[in-house]
Amino acid sequence: MSNSERSENRQRETDAILERKPGTEAVTDLEDRYRVVGAADRETYANWLTPIEDHYVCHRNETLDPEAADWEVDLAGAVAREGTLGMDDLRNEYPTVAVAHTMECAGNGRGYFDPETGSVQWEYGAVSTAIWTGVPLTSVLADHGATTDDGMWLTAVGGDHPEVEGENDRFARSIPMAKVLEDCILAYEVNGEPLPPEHGYPVRLLVPGWYGVNSVKWLTELHVTETMVHGPEWADRDGEDFTQWQQSSYRIHPEGVEPDSNATVSTVDTWAQLEANEIDHPYTFDENVKSLIGYPDDGATVTPGADGTVEIVGVAWAGDDAVTEIEVSTDGGDSWQDADCFGPDYDCAWRLFRYRWEPEPSTYTLASRATDERGRRQPARIADSDEDGDDYPWNEGGYAENAWRPHTLEVTIE
Known about the structure:
By secondary structure, this protein is of the alpha+beta class. It contains 7 helices and 21 strands. The strands form 5 sheets. Strands 4-3-12-7-8 form a 5-stranded mixed β-sheet. Strand 18 (340-342) and strand 19 (351-357) form a beta hairpin. It starts with a helix and ends with a strand. The mean pLDDT is 93.
């Protein structure tokens, strides 16, 4: 397929996605390699549930839209009984559960990095919360006699393929067994409806609280193994490389570094990896603590209510950790006040927060910052590429950004 034909196909697929998501906009893709659609607008982050038509989309290869009746997922590796699961098997032979999950692209916030990194220049819109329905992986693994000891891994492979001639990578991600047993599911519905094609129809892996790259779409294989995708058996499996998206891409590292491939790691918390010495270049697994103001909008002119107050509303999340404190600033971070949480409270999903403010007419810079149950608070800014310190580290992929200062907004009170 020529580059022009590939671009035309991508445009057709993007147009089809936008037709299903009328409130959203396509985000610029610097490399013409990703299908990307951002969340609808800032108001998305003043509500707990994200309608699927507003849920962000990001994937690298073609958008699959197969017949569910023909779709199968192979289960192999350290299991007593290998098997092939069809969609009827998943729907009828196993329990059904629903989980709330705040899904965030690991590149969300990449657009704030200076110097600029490659790939999609997301600002704040690549994060959404939905209810996902499917089969608990614990049931599937128990049914097939899987080895689920501590230290084991489950590798998921997507059914999509690269479209560029000469590229042989396959999308695969490995999840530690402890997380798999805790809350991972094989999802076939979102917000009560079948998965749309761009969200992995007919079935995807869903890893609650972890960056979206881990929730493999169009799932076609599951392997129970002692290691992550690693080594020659995965790097050249029938002429294809299954290791890139685990061992090279979505790693946090300086410019020009090719991370070492690891068979396993004992620390999987993304922030803990950044602080520890065990892993030179962290993997993007669970989401860092972060917050966003959803109302007022950036640049808005706001009239206070009859009581003279304005309610600032937003969301805060911390992956599979809990958010324990949310603060709001109305002076660009010079001072902070505690905000109150309200609304639904589910593991691995964001919390709504609000702060009632009594402003005088003027222009203000609003900010929010959150702290998680481990006492980790959002840093103020992203470091330059040659700086160290307490700021969030600049990295070549622009991954896992959670600084609060880039997300400030300006409002005028009349």
